[in-house]
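Archive entry: two folds, one per protein. Generate the first.
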Amino acid sequence: MPETLQEVRRLSPQERIERLHKLKEEHLKGIEEADSLIEESKGEIERDRLADSIEVPDSPRVDITDLFKGSETTVEEKAEEEPEDNLRYQALQDYEFVKDAVYSSLEDNDMDQLRQIERRLDEMHGLNLSKDISNMLDATRSVLYNIKRYQGL
């Protein structure tokens, strides 16, 4: 089959029209694919920018001798003392899970995890949270929305 316009000009008028229509369709399809990839890439850049702007909390050093001492506070009391750090950690874990889920095929247990994340997002909606946690929750909500949209949920 002729590949260049010079070769197409040498064809008969009927063959020339058919080949030009075919070339036009191929070019339009390529343009549509390029536009789709551009939008997808913009979304990835935005998600990565949001992920980079979120600070990962530093984990405290553990002194092993403290593990053997009697503790006057329970785990629940300790969690209540540091709710902001716990929310930040949970928000980061949820975001990482949905970000990884975008690029993988979802199984039933993944869908259950996504539903739990969605419930947590709904529970945290309207709470007075720091800007970085709010941004992380918004990013998670956005990625989750895209997952549901592409999965047809």
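Generate the second and append.
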Amino acid sequence: MAITVADVEDLIAEGSRGPLNELDRVLASLDRNVELLLDSDFEHRFHARERLGRFVRRPVATAPVEIEAFDEALDAGVISQPEHEQVAALDHLFAGRDKSTGRDVLVAFEVSKRVDRRDVERAAERAAILRKAGLEVLAFAGGQRATQGATARAVELGVTLILDRDAGTDEPSDESLE
């Protein structure tokens, strides 16, 4: 049922709130869906791989299914199926060489326009699952800005934050907190 502006005006004049409650529900759902699309677009425009260049040599996007040791850890019961699925839900997973140690590492990277405590915790938790599988992993979270809680939690959990208030533009200007 399509609701027109005239219908809304009539309902307001009649004092009826039923269809307006439905309209409020639909608009709230639409707001959530638009926010999800904007976040997804932001994740793409953030260019996580390029931003890792200061920390990791030649980062290459990968996936948990491409890492034999990770699948073996699942088969051996070292990690659970839900943990395997958690890692599969990472925004980005990269393989490369840690510039500070020269060792091969994986990078668990969560991206959000506004990085909050939960984004940082997800990066740390998913990196911990990969470590549980015997892999060397760095945890990162990135976005345009971070809450104070995210910044504090990143320090506590050893997650590197990469912040860029101009993310998605042609001129990156990283601000990293290690």
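Annotation attached to the second fold: The first strand starts at residue 56 and ends at 61. The chain has a mean pLDDT of 82.
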